[in-house]
Amino acid sequence: MLLAAGALGTLPVDAADLPRDAVRYRQGIMTALAWNLAPLAYMVKGDHAFDDARFTVLAARTAVLATMALEGFSSDTAAEPSYSSAAVWQQQDDFKQRMHTLETTSAALAKAAQRGDQAQMRVLFADTVIVCKACHDQYLLPR
Fold it and tell me: Which domain holds residue 93?
């Protein structure tokens, strides 16, 4: 296992780089969430044919990514340039609760997709998007 980790490159050793790396990490997670949610939206809105298998894969990815996002919002990143408002760190309990709600909602979406329950998939997709939008409205700076 150690050999495999070494093959991937070295981890940053300068602590000054770690907050910037965490910001890049969370931005990558958010980009990946958007990448996976967009095709779901197209299917739900009827812009693309509804593909149960593709929906299931994308919903499963979304659920996994949702569990990874909060890790990138460590307190040492508060001063780093990003699109996160200061409210993320000023209202940490609320922010964390919203992120946990995203985890729960997207997990329910993935489970509905595994069952092939299109009616629930549509409802839970809408719920997931509502959770995302509410958090963005509160904690994302305008670009």
Answer: 17-76+83-139
